[in-house]
Amino acid sequence: MKTSSCLFRSLAILSLGVVAIVSSARAQVTVSWGTESEGRYFADAAGSLLPEGSLVLLGSFAAATDFAGNASDYSYLSSQFTTFSSAFIGDGGFTGVDGALAAASVTSALNRQLSYWAFNAATTGAATEWGIFTQTTGLWTTPNDPFPSSMNTDLVDANVANIGSFAPSLDPLVPSLARTAILNLGPVATVPDSSVGLLNWFAIGATMVSGRMFKRRLGYTI
Amino acid sequence: MEKQDWSGAPLAYEVTSPASIFMSLASIRSQVKIAVYTRVLLLGLAGQGAAWAQSATTTPVGIVTVAPGSSAVTTPLFFYYGPPLAQAAVYEGRFTAMAGAVLTDSGASWTVNQFNPAVSAAARSHYIEVTSGVLQGTSFDVLATAASTITADFSFGNTSVVGSTYVIRPHRTIASLFGVTNQAGLRAGTELTADLIRLWDGVKYLDFFYSSAAGGPGWRKVGDGVTDHGGRVIKPKEGILFKFTGGTSPTLALMGELQGGVATILIAPGANFVNPVASIPLTLGTSNLFTNNPATGLKAGAPTTADVVSLFNGAAFDDYYVRSTAAGVQGWRKAGDVATDRSAVVIPPGTAFIVKRTGDPRAFSWKRPSLYTPPSS
After folding, report:
1. ipTM for this model
2. pTM beyond cutoff 0.90
3. How many CB pairs under 8 A join A and B?
4. How far away is chain A from the Cα of B71, in angstroms, using its nearest Cα?
5. Taking a C-beta distance cutoff of 8 angstroms, is the pair B175, B302 a contact?
6. Are residue B271 and residue B351 in the same domain, yes or no?
7. Pairing relation of β-strands A29-34 and A149-152?
8. CA B209 to CA B294: how far, in whole Å?
9. Is residue A13 part of a domain?
């Protein structure tokens, strides 16, 4: 059953106009960011999840930024920060969920390490606390390639708290959620180091927040 | 051969696409219908004996025209191209025996090396596409050809293709697709000024361009301005990324066969640049990319834990995944929005996309569904 294109093939010539998907823009990197994995949430220094409407920025800090010496100096920090995008707690389908957001943003910045800068208010001016978190093993570094690409970041992968701290699981009653953690936003006036932040959190808010998280987890993951 | 009786089935598709595509589909439907009827007829003949020796297929042949842009290119234009038509088959048959990777068609009378280069073992000139049976839609290169046997570049394991039908198609190359002397009209120049053809080798992109150097125009690779790369094979399910750098973007015309049956596409761990070989729109929900089993399809989870499908929207990528939480599978979502169902998102015909298989370390074979299949009623 050899096929000959001349003898056996029905030459039904079709003409199909394909709508081209093209770009006239510069190479763009799409970054998904936030807490989409629900493995970590944003919380204030007292351990309370940030309320809906709280501001979170996506951007990149200058390499030589002195966080420790300027933790409460907004002017200095903002001068070191290039904002790529902003979103609010509750965005991306997390309506009614404190401490969580999901967003996707596009940037043309190449080879830049991304940071999340979270505030405990809807505007930077109204905020009394903030936290700055990043990831330093390359997961949050935009590609150095002038072609379109995408990358997925999530708070659960952050490994450095430039300002603020990481907390372990808030749900001692639910061991299966051991990866759950909350990031504390350092108070602007008295920014604690990580260990102090943890101690503060455990001493002041553990019981209250654990109960709250447990209740929330019941609503989302069980 | 298709073994389903299509004679009474309406060939309809649920398509949400521009009118221009929809009108074209009407034409395709009628042609596909003709082909399907013919296939049913051939099955009937086969059941009566020796008619196979005289049989023929009527797979529709088509021309797809792609015009990435009609105006002058002042900034780079990107286009993720998935050739939606297969090269016309040069042989059809049925496997009658196999021993390892050596496949026998007792009805064949080939010449030695007919479907493979005689000299270079590394080169490939033709591939086999299985058109029925358990490996339907799978394709693999021809390593050697004898009178009635072909050696395949494929590990069959315990899987048998005896009794399966197949076709043999020539590979496309850069030169065959765009012309030995760049008849497609891509912008020639240096690696910095020419239009780029970007191909994924499984680990990294390789960039090719048409050199206008006075010393020797031809197809070159970035980083290698001397060697002729016009013979670089473009596999049938391989995506092509264009970067148009200036001038007027060309119109690309592709002639080939509709590959309407199931297409089996390997999704390997890591990044995959996939051509679904689809001449009609697919949707995420009906793509069969997600099977609820990470051994046979995408893994669900969050964007950082799930496998991700990246579709170019004309300006940037949109990432899609199947969201799953402890409460169960939530469905297709776009990264950055956990609430909205995205199962109706369209993969346009003629486009390639990226699958990031990072949620699971195993490869799987994506069974791109048949384009002929009518919706279940």
Report:
1. 0.78
2. no
3. 224
4. 11
5. no
6. yes
7. parallel
8. 38
9. no
